[in-house]
Amino acid sequence: MEGFELYCNKTEAGIEKPFVFNVEVINISVQLGQARLLSPVSSQCYNTSTNSSDYYVWRMNFDDTPYRFSDVHNKFTIIGCNTLAYIGSPRDNNSYESGCVSVCHNEDSLVDDSCSGIGCCQTTIPENLTYYNIQFDANFDSSSIWEFSPCSYAILLEASWFKFHETYITTNQLQNKTDGWAPVVVDWAIRNETCEVAKLNHNSYACISANSVCLSSTNGPGYLCNCSSGYQGNPYIHNGCQDIDECDYNDKYPCHGICTNTPGGYYCSCPQGTHGKASIAECTPDQKLPSAVKVVIGTSSSLAFLLLCSMCIYMVYERRRFTKDKERYFKEYGGWLLLEEIKGKQGVAFKIFTNQELEQATDRFDDNRVLGRGGYGTVYKGVLEDNQIVAVKKPKMINESNKNEFGKEMFILSQINHKNIVKLLGCCLEVEVPMLVYEFVTNGTLFHLIHEHNRTSPIPLGTRLRIAYESADALAYLHSSASPPIIHGDVKPSNILLDENYMAKVSDFGASKLVPKDEDQFATLVQGTCGYLDPEYLQTCQLTDKSDVYSFGVVLLELLTGKKALCFEGSEEERSLASNFIAAMNENRLLEILDNQVKSEGDMELIQEISELAKQCLNVRGEERPTMKEVATELDKLRKSKLHPWIPHNAEETESLLGESSNDHGLNYNGIDTTTSYTTEKRLALDIEYGR
After folding, report:
1. Residues 468, 556: contact at Cβ < 8 Å?
2. Bond prior to 395 in cis (omega within 30° of 0)
3. What helix, strand, coil percent values describe the chain, rounded to 5?
4. Which of 116, 485, 617, 624 is the most interior residue, by most CB within 10 Å?
């Protein structure tokens, strides 16, 4: 069958081993529809002789084959102390992009068997994945820590096989353990048809053995074949499924009487007389039961009654325990303090919801009510009893260190009153992870407008500029006018909603943090999205208002260029929109990356000023970035100049706000030298390649 052919090939050691598409096969399971293959390890090593990094970057391609990378058994894993690596599968309509960051400043911070971002980081992959490539972010390398951690590694591998050890950072033990390869699990199936269609087409139906069944694939389209219950073997060949003689496996199919094998099963009968040893369940109904068995029946009836009573008691106990759990969660998350805060302020609209209310509002969190999914949780559309439409966010996790302050922080966030910020209406505290209730915004996200709607309906520069100003004004309010100040922490287009008039409303600040008061809080604030993360924040783990400025700078670039923050198509330099933009500005080729609609309006003086503002927002040094208030003020001025072009621009005022142009530095990416060395590219038949 096409795609399933295996062939023997000699390894470098001269040993013959099975291969599929030039990838070594470790083992195959016909019953599970899985195979374990060897996956290549990508690496980034700092070269002290050249003061640059050497990269060995791989990709695997199973397009148009029966194989899919298992989303259940595999995880994308990176190992290193100053590493940001990406895994992606660029597709026109269904692209996948993700990443993982690992930061550690010394050997003492490493912990064995821990893969939570210190020396090691893991993330899941989606189902139906047939292709991936791996890239390292050039802004992260081992130049400052090469003495104890010269190399970083990235690989898609079988999660249960891997256990992190600190020596993987400080020695070559990982390279010795893997020899550059590690197991990865792939799911295979007959991909061209469903079970229903295949059964009608006898010429192509793969389950050709008698006593076999067809099962739908759980990873991608297609089907698998299995032997029917009571049979074992290979269902893909004639007479491949053979009857199991259960009487030969008494430990698996227990029978204390007379065992008789039948096709696909067996039965167990009681011996004649009163001295049989078969249990009551193994006796046939027409057999005469001995008196001893009658005693057993009476005893069993009593036991059944006791069991029923026990179940009733257990249900009462569980109900009480459930109630106590709700009370405990409510107390842990500061529910009583929150009630006092609400009582102390008359006319407050903030509400504490019960779990039952939110379940009813969302049809028990039905998938049809999902508005969006992200790394931090899922948002559902809900309809309250008074017919008010709301958005209910169900997070995956919460910061354990600040549990008792959670309710109070949510109450503070609910007091935010700004037309460009989504209103926080309430929360539910009686569950393991609290849920948040927001006002419902009708017109989707800025991400959808830029990257999907834009393909069919161009967005005028004036609209882009207005949305940018409204978003910046909202963030400036959080930083400067809210009391206490609030850092958003995850500014990106998918967290900027649009109402029916396409007015911007910044959302998801419920996952934000009040400005930290001490160093202990800094380490707990690691959050954000790859492509928008502040490089300085990744180095220090200190979230500041300037971190939001950097992320907003990337959003401003997306509005100008129509491109995503991360794109795996093209060269490594083109993968990061921020890096690509800085290079284009320094090389005077800004026009190349602008959106066609923006270029068609021809207002290059205005575009240049917006670009300079974005460049300042993306400065690697946070202290040299403008504040969000300065950004909003500048955007408001540029917006008004777009609306009233007869008003002259004040170029000197603009220059004084932005400061010295980074074009004078002579280094790409605002002073960071990202020069790296490349090795010669080598391609295998499966499109696995290494190189720079």
Report:
1. yes
2. no
3. 35, 25, 40
4. 617
Q: How far apart are the first and last CA of the chain?
A: 36
Instruction: Say how far apart CA 423 and CA 415 lie, in whole Å.
Output: 9
Stated as kind and residue range, the H or E segment containing 74 is strand 74-79
Q: Are 124 and 71 in contact (CB under 8 A)?
A: yes
- Which residue in the list 243, 490, 545, 548 is annotated as catalytic? 490
Distance between CA 579 and CA 424 in Å, rounded?
35
Question: Could you tell me which CATH number the domain at 448-659 has?
Answer: 1.10.510.10
DSSP string, 545-557: HHHHHHHHHHHHH
The fold for domain 336-439 equals Phosphorylase Kinase; domain 1 (3.30.200)
The whole-number average pLDDT for the span 143-155 is 86
Length of the chain: 692
CA-to-CA dists, residue 453 to 293, 443, 682, angstroms: 75, 11, 39
pLDDT above 60: residue 281: no
User: Closest Cα partner for 580 from 611, 537, 544?
Assistant: 611
CA distance 254 to 258: 11
Residue 322's contacts (CB-CB under 8 Å, 6 or more residues apart) are none
Backbone dihedral angles phi then psi of residue 128, each to the nearest 5 degrees: 65, 30
Distance set, CA 514 to CA 409, 479, 482, 517 (Å) = 8, 10, 10, 9
Question: Dihedral of the CA atoms 605, 607, 608, 611 (nearest 10)?
Answer: 160
Q: How far apart, in whole angstroms, are the C-alpha atoms of residue 543 and residue 548?
A: 9
Largest CA distance in the chain: 111
Q: Would you tell me how many other CB atoms lie within 10 Å of the CB of residue 668?
A: 19
d(CA 118, CA 105): 9
> What is the domain partition of the chain in residue ranges?
7-188+680-690, 195-243, 248-282, 336-439, 448-659
Ranges 287-301, 336-350, 531-545, 586-600, most confident:
586-600
Q: Is 259 helix (H, G, I), strand (E, B) or coil?
A: strand
Rounded CA separation 70/79 (Å): 21
Q: Rounded to an integer, what distance in angstroms lies between the CA atom of residue 59 and that of residue 567?
A: 15
Cα angle value 155/160/164 (rounded, 5°): 60
Using omega within 30 degrees of 0 as the cis cutoff, is the peptide bond preceding 484 cis? Answer: yes
Of all residues in the chain, what percent carry a pLDDT higher than 90?
Answer: 36
Q: What pLDDT is recorded for position 130?
A: 92
Whether residue 664 is predicted with pLDDT greater than 50 in this model: the reply is: no
Please give the radius of gyration of the chain, using alpha carbons only, rounded to the nearest integer.
31
Task: Tell me the two tokens of residue 37.
Answer: 């293959």
Cβ–Cβ under 8 Å, residues 599 and 611: no
Confidence grade of residue 107 (pLDDT, cut at 50, 70, 90) = confident
Which among 182-196, 320-334, 652-666, 673-687 has the top mean pLDDT? 182-196
Burial string for 530-557 (b: 16+ CB within 10 Å, else e) reads bbbbbbbbbeeebbbbbbbbbbbbbbbb
pLDDT in tens, 426-460: 999 988 889 999 999 988 899 999 987 656 678 89
Helices 577-586 and 545-561 cross at an angle (nearest 10°) of 70
Instruction: Check if the beta carbon of residue 428 is closer than 8 Å to that of residue 382.
Output: no
Question: What token pair was written down for 611?
Answer: 């670009």
What's the whole-number mean pLDDT along residues 362-367? Answer: 92
95, containing H or E segment: none
- pLDDT tens per residue across span 373-382: 766 778 999 9
Q: Which residue is listed with tokens 């028990």? A: 364
Count helices and strands in the chain by DSSP H and E runs:
18, 33
In the residue annotation, 490 being an active-site residue is answered as yes
* Residue of 499, 474, 477, 501 whose CA lies nearest to 555: 474
